[in-house]
Every structure is written in structure tokens, then in C-alpha cells.
């Protein structure tokens, strides 16, 4: 063990809580009372504040004696250090001793919620300490009889003695254990010895890692470790040796090397033999099951499956509007067909006790149809298909061990048909056997025979044949089929041998307990329906936490709760969706389960929003949200050179200023290097190759007049005529960006947006191309888009 100079010294004698009065604890976990936590905190060792010589006061590295503000920070830092010194070691481990037989075991803490003076132990710990559940139950009953809760029953027995004359208080003594706080070293090695032969490392390696991580804090040498498997099986190991050497180790936050060693040489030989047999019968070999894989529509595969095994397939691509038909053809009556969709609500491969569609019939072919309107296909990414061979009953004489090990052949095919309800016909099963004129029907075997030979036929038929009145089948009176012929009293199925009767009862009428919840159902089809619909332990892919979780936890509401049913969510998703997050559009705090509805409101608002008004200057990329001349339709930057503080009710002076600005642009230019204005001498020189010829005043006047005449300068009437003024570099850049994005939409490169929305997006994004596209996707309706 590690040399820890500071140890946690605490122990207490506590009564063991009965299993029915304690929570179900996994692995090596225990629960202690709240008073135990207070005592442990009081017993926690204190570390010295400083290890400097002569108790010198050592400050933190950020302390500055010339800065008065660091004194307060130093005080807070020291307070946090002292608080950390009061914390208990992690993980907290205990040594539990049963004084009646001196057995001991190490354990980890689950929580401090046990009753006062009691300790709750997991089933593994109770078994290791030799404490039986019957002993705890009798102690509880004796305690009830010894106090005043059942005084009436005790008084009827006189002084409280039982039938054997022993006092009730003698039976009421509870099992008492001693709990010591014991810090174990971090384990680096453990050696396990399997108690049975034939374990394959592929079987237990992942299972062992997950089982230890989820259930154990400590490992105690000499104890039995039981690891549950995936097919209602379990692997049992003896904890033979650990390192660091000792009675136990801690397995939390450590790299643990695990070594599996056979218990004896005979077991090692048996294990090797079973591994060789399994290798010979591995999937894909001539004596093993087929591999399976991905299937396509119209594809037919010939495969084989061993008894008790599955061959899994998956269908990824199909027309979601067509009807699917899955068909399995085989000569073996105990090869069955199952299928389940893969989606957020269905995650498992189809099995006998967990599937959505299945065919347990003994006839061939086995088939079922999946209509596109089936609610189980909603959100399905794929369809999982499995072929399964049930193991023959070992009690049936006709089935030998060699026959049970032979793979069973089958053919599997998936077809797709368009759904046409007009072609659907109703088959009432009323088909009449064709016969010749003058034939009559035998009342015993229902065959048509010539009327002249009816007497001879009936005499022979009544002596040798018998008609089953329930199914109408005819059997020879002394045949084995008639002797073993059976009809199920619960349904319409029937058969002709004991094996089919036993298989039918096992499939349809045997009571089963759900492995994920306490529910009990009759028959595998009902169990499969339960596990794929209403079972609380059904695994789903939560749309909020994106984890595989049971659809209903212990603290979640019931599946039939009105809020659950109205929400369309599972109980887990209803609770998990109650968490909040910030909307990326409006920054409001919204519950996760309400986010889709909230975003639909944003979407409705987006497509219903009218387009913004933009500056009518064809070179400017701004909207009319700020100050400016809105009657002219110009922004503040473009209208600024035209503004004067004079009285001009008719706008004549404003019109002259517009003309002078056009005249100045065409005669001398604006001189701005970024200018791309076609009605500016500087802009023409940038966009035209060669020298731009000078224009006379008369020519300029002819160009200006068509630009100025349509302009409305009346402040009471909004102007719609465009302007072609030079603008600043920011406005020119935003305009170019907006026109480029609008042109991309017209060309079909991306979504098509109106130019006004592109200008608004460029303005909101500060002229950044990617941010502009992001803004348009969030706030702007695409061209032709309507609210849904």
C-alpha cells in the first residue's frame, strides 16, 4: 500500500437494512446515514497550511506586498486552501466486517441516505459477508412484533412468545456489521480465474471493462466477480491476485491490467477445445451461420443459420412510397423471420423477444408486408432484418445432437410494389374444388367422387379415415399424425406432432418476464410488442442529449401521462427537454422541447416580413433605417451633399442641386479610387479601357435630363426614380456584394433573394460575405418562399 502519513480513522457498528427497505445498489456500493458523513468530515485529517521552516508564512505567487488589492485576494485564496483541506479523500472506500463469521469485504460509497444507525449493502456485499436475505426479513418481522405496532396480535399470544416458546425479541436481532474507513491503493494489476471453461476473450473483455467502470470502486481478493453477458448469460471469475499486493485495490482513476488464467489444466484444455469448435463454426464458414450484411430491393440471397443464432441484414435504400414485402423460404419449420426499423425510437436489432414485424409460423414461405403508411417507419434510417433458427427441444427423440449442430438453409428476398388501393381484393377463402358433372361429395373426407362409386368409397373411407371437425383435415385413423393432432384452445392454430405443440405453446402461450422492467406478458409476440412500444427500458436516441437512454427513468412521468401523450415525446425526452438554452436568433432562453416551435415562429416571421427600403442611389448599399431624405429615397450619406438649410417648398433649388451634382460628376469626376459609377468621369475611367473623351456641356445636359426629369422632389409624395451618385467606399462595397449574391440566386448557385434583402444583409454583416449569407438564411425570405 501507498505510504499515506495522513489517514482517515473512522469506524461504526451499523445494522444492515433489509433489501425491501433499501434502494437497489449495484456492484460494491453501500449507503450510509447522514450522521456518518458528519463524523467522517470531523475525522478528516487537516494538512498544514505551510511546510516552510519555523512556520514561516508563505504567500501565493501572485501576492504583491506593495499592492493593497492583493491582500484581499490572498485571504480568499487561503480560505479556499483551508476548505480543500477539509474535503474527504476521493474515492471514499470502506472495509466492512461481519463479526459473526469474521468475513470482510471492501466497498465504495453510493450516497449518504440510509436510515440512522443502518447501512444498506448491495446483494454482492451481502453474499460476500454471509448475510442472507431471509435473516434480514425475519429481523424486520421480529422488530415489528417487538414494538407496539402490532400490539393486538402480540396480546393474543399472551406474553409475546411464539409457537416454539422463544421470545419474539430473540428473532428480532438484526444483522450488525462493522464499517471502517479504509483507503485502498490504486490498483495496477488483477488476475482473474474463470470458474467455468470455454470463455472467449471477445465475450468478456468489453463486458468486464464496462461492468467494472459502472458498478465497482474496489476489488477484494478471494471474492467471486459475476459479469452479466448479452444473452441472459453470465461469466463468473475468482479474484485471485491484485497488485499492489494486499486484500484489495481501488479501481477508480487508474490503468488496470487484467490477466485471465485458467483455474486448472483440465479447464484450460476444455477452454481450448471449445474455442476451436467455435472457430470451426464461426460466421461465414461452411459449418457456421452466414455473415449477413446489406440487402437491396429485388436481391435474393441463399444463406444458412445455426440453431440458436441470428443472421442480420439491413435495407438502407428503398422508395418510401412503395410497399415492401420481405419473404423467407425454407424447408425448416423452426427458422423464423423478424424485422425492425432503425430510428430514434427503435435502436435494437430484431430478436425473438424484441421486433416490430415477425413471422413465427411453421409454414413456408414466411413473409410480411410493410406499408409506407406504417407509423413505425416514421423517421426510419434503415430496416433491420434477421433470420433466426430456434434450438430444437432436447427432449424430442427425433432430434439428435448432431442434427442440432447442422446449419439450416433458407432463401431471403425483399421486393417493392407500388401501393394501389383500387387493385386490392378481398379474399374470403371460399374456394370450391372443381369436379365433374354427376360427382358427389363424401361427407367424411369431403372429396368429390362419382355417384356410382359413392357407396364403396364411403365404406372404405369410414373404416380408414377420420375428419377433424375443427380444421377439416382428413387423417388415417391409425396414423401418428392423427394420434398427435392438436388444436390450441386459445387460438385457431393446430399441428400434427408433439414438437409443434410444444413450440407453439412456448412461442404464444408461455409467460415471459420483460428483461428491462417487471412486466409479465404471455407469448413472444406480445413480449416483442411490449419491448418495442411501452416498455420503460426501451432504448431510444434522445433528441436533446443525443444519447442512447431508456425512454422512461425512475423519476420520469408515466408513459400514459397526459402531458407525455400530448407532447409526442417519451418521458425521458419530456424531462430532458425541460432544460433551457439560448436561441441563436433572438438570444431568448427557451426550453429545449419548445425550441422547434420557437424556431417555427421565427420562420413564420421571416417569410412574412416585408422587404426593407434601400437607398435609391444605385451605387449605395444602405437601407433607409437611419436619417436621410426618405421622400427622395436617399440615405444620409447620399443626401448629405444635397442638403442646404433654405426654404424650398416647391423643391426647385433641390432639383438644381441634383443637376449640378450630375454635371460635376460627368465633367470633373469624384476622384475616388473605388468609384465604379457609370455616370462619373472617374468611374468611367476605371471601367473603360483606353482614354475617356471629354464631354461638352451640351452633351452632358442631354445625359442629365433623363436622369433628373423622373425625380419627384415633392416632400408629400415618395420618389421612385433611381439616382446614380458617387458614394463612399463602404456603400460601394456593400452594393457590389449584394448584387453578387442576388445574381448567384438568379443563376441557381444558391437561394434566390431579392436585392433589397441582400443589401440589408450586407449592411447587417458589415460587408462580410459569409456573414451576409448567414444573415440571409436566418432573417430573409427566399424568392417565392411562403409560410408553411
UniProtKB/TrEMBL annotation:
Keywords: Ubl conjugation pathway. It holds the Pfam family UFD1_N2. Residues 288-417 form the DUF7590 domain. It comes from the Eukaryota. GO terms for molecular function: polyubiquitin modification-dependent protein binding. Residues 85-136, 186-261 form the Ubiquitin fusion degradation protein UFD1 N-terminal subdomain domain. Residues 145-172 are annotated as: Disordered. Residues 660-687 form the Ubiquitin-protein ligase E3A N-terminal zinc-binding domain. InterPro entries: AZUL, AZUL_sf, DUF7590, Ufd1-like, Ufd1-like_Nn, UFD1_N1, UFD1_N2. The keyword Cytoplasm does not apply. GO terms for cellular component: VCP-NPL4-UFD1 AAA ATPase complex. One of its GO terms (biological process) is ubiquitin-dependent protein catabolic process. PANTHER family: FUSION DEGRADATION PROTEIN (UFD1), PUTATIVE (AFU_ORTHOLOGUE AFUA_4G04640)-RELATED (PTHR12555:SF15), UBIQUITIN FUSION DEGRADATON PROTEIN 1 (PTHR12555). Belongs to the UFD1 family. This is Ubiquitin-protein ligase E3A N-terminal zinc-binding domain-containing protein. It comes from Penicillium daleae.
